[in-house]
Design goal:
It contains 4 helices and 24 strands. It has about 475 residues and is mainly beta. The N terminus is likely disordered.
């Protein structure tokens, strides 16, 4: 994790000084200095940030992300967010030029406790004006962050101060409410967790608590910057701006009570599915769900702009797939405009094309699974459509896919990857080695019906009223 000194070197001393003066000019709060602007560029999942001061709570773990540190100032919890261009490694072999906060997209998770008075400094290092909306929060209208409606936009180089009390526990988000088409499409978003102050009848204590945001990009092969004009045809479906095999696994101890929080800031819904376990949806960004209104599921659909909390007991050991159930959302770029070639013999075409392009390869005659094995030449900074190796070969996945790893010997509070699961003898699918009889066919017994024997009766309407 990088300190403010490292950030100053990257951003420039004069611009930070200007931001500090802007904060003083728009805030009536007496401050010695801005809170430290902590920055992070490592895309790995960071350990939970255990609170060193303020009200205690059990921290969350941000998938391929981290929690923003704070300082206490006369009883107020202060944070500093920097809106800036960032470089995000979406998976090994591809980096995207995005916009985000404090070195990453999405920005760091903010964790507070119900009843905390929170003060957030937002410094704009973008080439255009921005603002900050605290999605789902109950707060004074002037702190809601809708530029032009509740505040003037934050101009480049300026810093604004937001201050309010975290009034209710739950899972929330933050994102701009200024030029959203550009800024959210470029990756500007982050998670916000408000923990309950006291024991809550609808919010259980859990052993593991994960959070991530769902987002999507359209980055053409060979490019690094998203096409912000895209409305529907995205080609990189991501969790916290990471795609498989770049999404870390969720590593838990057997019989842990697990909570997973997910928010959707993409342009479509996502049916999030987990294998091997059933869960309950226990909360939304509107708050905890009454226990009498919950039911068991293995898939929950998260619409645009929604948050969902799911909870379950991880009582089945193994490596369990965890993914969006829209099939195109578990693949990377280059696959959305390919025609269906299943069953088409492309031999003659390939021979002719190879005379012009010696590296040409035919694709899709037997399905697209072979794409994960082909060593196709790809443009620079481009991921294969399907990738990832498991213990038994290619996983043929991309996009929104991860693995829930449940182990009986995973230590309490240990989030390290335990490696691949070793199946006990007799508990894994295997190849049948016996003889296979020919299927029974009853062509002789089936009475063929000639086309001339089928009587078609067409009834024409007499008037439009008969339709």
């Amino acid at each position: 994790m990088n300190s403010r000194r490292h950030f100053l070197k990257a951003a420039g001393l004069s611009s930070i000084a200007g931001g500090a003066m802007a904060a003083a000019s728009v805030s009536k709060v007496a401050l010695a200095a801005l809170p430290e602007a902590v920055s992070q560029t490592n895309a790995n999942t960071m350990p939970p940030l255990v609170p060193k001061d303020g009200r205690p709570y059990r921290p969350v773990v941000t998938l391929n992300g981290w929690t923003l540190p704070w300082r206490m100032n006369n009883g107020v919890k202060e944070f500093h967010l920097i809106a800036e261009p960032v470089v995000r490694e979406m998976a090994p072999g591809m980096k995207a030029q995005l916009w985000g906060y404090n070195g990453q997209s999405p920005g760091p998770t903010i964790e507070v406790v119900e009843g905390d008075r929170v003060r957030i400094f937002v410094t704009n290092r973008l080439p255009e004006a921005t603002s900050m909306h605290w999605h789902g929060q109950r707060l004074p209208n002037g702190m809601d962050g809708v530029s032009g409606l509740t505040q003037a936009a934050i101009q480049p180089g300026k810093t604004y101060v937001y201050e309010f009390v975290a009034r209710r526990p739950g899972t929330f988000m933050y994102h701009p409410h200024a030029d959203e088409m550009t800024q959210m499409a470029m990756g500007m978003m982050g998670s916000w967790i408000t923990h309950p102050r006291h024991a809550h009848p609808l919010i259980d204590e859990v052993d593991r608590d994960f959070v991530f945001l769902i987002n999507a990009y359209n980055i053409e092969p060979g490019a690094a910057r998203p096409n912000i004009m895209t409305m529907t045809d995205f080609n990189l479906w991501s969790w916290n701006s990471r795609v498989f095999p770049g999404i870390d696994s969720l590593n838990v101890r057997k019989n842990d009570k697990v909570r997973i929080r997910a928010g959707n800031l993409s342009m479509t819904n996502h049916p999030i599915h987990i294998h091997g376990h059933e869960f309950y949806v226990t909360g939304t960004d509107g708050g905890p769900i009454p226990k009498t209104a919950r039911w068991p599921e293995v898939t929950t659909d998260i619409a645009v702009g929604q948050m969902r909390q799911i909870e379950f007991i991880a009582d089945e050991e193994g490596d369990w797939a965890f993914h969006c159930h829209k099939s195109h959302h578990t693949m990377n770029a280059m696959g959305h405009s390919v025609p269906t070639m299943i069953g088409v013999d492309q031999t003659a075409v390939m021979e002719k094309l190879n005379q012009l392009m010696p590296s040409y390869m035919a694709m899709g005659e037997n399905g697209m699974g072979d794409m994960s094995k082909m060593q196709m030449p790809l443009p620079e900074n481009t991921l294969p459509m399907m990738a990832g190796e498991g213990p038994y070969g290619s996983l043929e996945m991309g996009g929104m896919f991860s693995v829930l790893k449940v182990r009986h010997n995973q230590a309490h509070g240990d989030y390290k990857d335990p490696g691949w699961y070793q199946h006990p003898k007799g508990t894994s699918a295997y190849e049948y080695q016996g003889a296979i009889d020919a299927p029974l066919r009853q062509h002789a017994e089936i009475k063929k019906v000639e086309q001339s024997q089928i009587e078609l009766k067409v009834i024409k309407p007499h008037s439009h009223q008969d339709h």
